[in-house]
Each structure stands twice: as structure tokens, then as C-alpha cells.
Amino acid sequence: MMITWRRVHERDFPLLGQWLAQPHVARWWNQEHSIEAVTRDFGPSAAGLDPTEDHLALLDGRPFGLVQRLRLADEPRYVAELSAVTDVPPGAMSIDYLIGDLRHVGRGLGPRMIESMLHKIWDEHPQATCVLVPVVAANRPSWRALEKAGFTRVAEGDLEPDNPIDDRLHYIQRIDRPVHGVRRPTATA
User: Fold this and answer.
1) What secondary structure letter does DSSP report for 25?
2) Which helix (H) or strand (E) holds 38?
């Protein structure tokens, strides 16, 4: 089973809407899933008009997940909020991710998908110094997937949650760009 990638296209919007409507996704993404909302939220990236990059993860050629990646410098308000909790170095990037098809949840694909995206980041974004990912503390499967992919928890603190039902406590996970093919240890909280 091989994970490959392709950018999200408008033709993928119905699939994204189906995934966003799934209870296991909706709980943490808290995003509208109508075709109009998906077009509004993903259309600019698909058209190359937004710096956020949306990628479908494909397992043996079939979509099973989504990873959004962004340069934190492109989101100054987000950097300001995150900087109150942890150091945000120049060149830092972030990701958000989901496995849309419930049949693929709990099979170890989350960490593999994240690791695969990290390789893409290091290859395609030579200026990326690290990847920082804030995760709601209650979302154990998400922060555990990051840890299994090599991330280290470097901080915890209050950030605005995506879902208003969640507490503000977030764990900040970080992985630094590998040096000579070997991952550098990250600072600990």
C-alpha cells in the first residue's frame, strides 16, 4: 500500500463534503459541508488563489485523506496567537489533516500519511525549518498520530479551538527539518 498525493481540484469538492459530514471528521473539523461551503472554503486553494495547499492522500490511487499545509508566515494573526504559546521560527509551516473514510481509521494510516506529507514539505519547501501543529488536547488520536510520525510536544497552552465545544487547551507538536537525512531532536516543553 503506497501513499501518493495530488492537489485538490474542484471535482473533489463533493468527496470533501462527504468526508466533512462524517461524524469522526465533523467532531474535530467543525466545518460546513454543503457543496457551497466546500467551494467557498477550498475553492481559492484549488484555484491557486490562496497560499494554503490542499492535498488529497491516495492509497493505491484512491483518495482516503486530506492534508492542508501552509506557511505560518502567510497567516500573521495565527502566528501571533501561536507565538503566545511557543516559539514560531521563520520558515515554520503547519498542517491539518483528516482521514475521510471511516474504514481507514485506526489502521495506522494517519501517522504514515503525516510522514509522507513531511517528506513532501522538506522536498518542496526548502525554506521550511520546522512543522508546528497545535492540536486540541482532547483529540488524543490526532496528537498521538503526530507523535508516531516523529513529532514532539514542545508546549501546551490556550488557543482558540476550531470547535466551540472544545476546551482551549492545545498541545503544540513540532518536528524540525532533518539534517543530512536525520531528524534533529526538538526542544521539550
Assistant:
1) H
2) helix 35-46
**What global pTM score does this model have?**
0.90
What is the Cα–Cα distance from 47 to 116, expressed in whole angstroms? Answer: 24
Contact 164, 128 (CB under 8 A): no
- The answer to whether 93 and 78 have CB atoms below 8 angstroms apart is no
Residues 54, 8: contact at Cβ < 8 Å? yes
Q: Which three cell numbers stand for residue 96?
A: 491539518
* 151 closest CA partner among 104, 114, 108: 114
pLDDT in tens, the chain (189 residues): 789 999 999 999 999 999 999 999 988 998 899 999 999 999 999 999 999 999 999 998 999 999 999 999 999 999 999 999 999 999 999 999 999 987 888 777 899 999 999 999 999 999 999 999 999 999 999 999 999 999 999 999 999 988 888 999 999 999 999 986 544 444 433
Cα maximum dimension of the chain: 45
The dihedral through the CA atoms of 187, 143, 113, 31 has a sign that is negative
**Per-residue b/e over 80-119, b at no fewer than 16 CB within 10 Å?**
ebbeebbebeeebbbbbbbbbbeebbeeebbbbbbebbbe
